[in-house]
Amino acid sequence: DGRKLLTLSESGTIPIPQHIIDYGTWWSWFSIWSGSFPRAVGEERLSAVYNDTLIITVDELPEWNWEAPEPLDEFEVTDPDAPLASPPEAGQASFSGDLFVASILTGSYLYSDVNGDEEGESLFQWFVASDPEGSDMRGLEGANQLTYVVADSMREKYVAFQVTPVAATGGTGNLAGDPALSDFRQILVVGTGIKPAGFVKVYPNPVGELLTVDQCGGYASLALIDMTGRVQQFQQIGNENRIELPMTHQEQGVYLLQLHSAQGTSEVIRILK
User: What are the backbone angles phi and psi of residue 145, rounded to the nearest 5°?
Assistant: First the structure.
């Protein structure tokens, strides 16, 4: 970024001029090792590189003096007062959702980049620990999406959400920022569990083409969720006491049927297609 000259010194090979342009690797100078290394590169390539118009050899250097020479037309002079390129940042990492088994937790954060680079594909990871300080934290295998469905084994344990911000553009050393970790929060024993919900009857289970949810009039809505946390179907219940969900187009696998009450509580039933 115009603040420090970078040198490819004591190299085992020589750079390719077109790669210098393509990747923006503007070495101030390069020097290959002696002995067998130049022979390994080969006479044809050595000749092509050293005779390339992009490469300045010693015989083309101007006379040295203490006055700053005029910049060469072929090169862009970087503004010395321009801000240094910096990696993106993620602030206020947190997550929302019921702290019950089978609930969907959703991570959140604020992305920022002083260089104005848009966000690329940031990296996510959910962690589990046995205490709120996360002293023995470890990453949950496969839990690398923005959402996470709380597993039955997580009761009374603590979970946290982490994001590593990644910019869509910028130098290779500035694409990814430092990870940001949320607070650890405990998954409660009471509340939602993978169990039949009250007097609700769900059949057939395993299901084929049509899933019937009977005696569900006490709930406000229901959602069919796959094991990645994505909502596949959502329906308001209203005054209906029986809901039929078409399952023909759903792939085979395990689903969670989550019923939400108007008071904000929920119950979950495991469904097999």
Answer: -115, 170
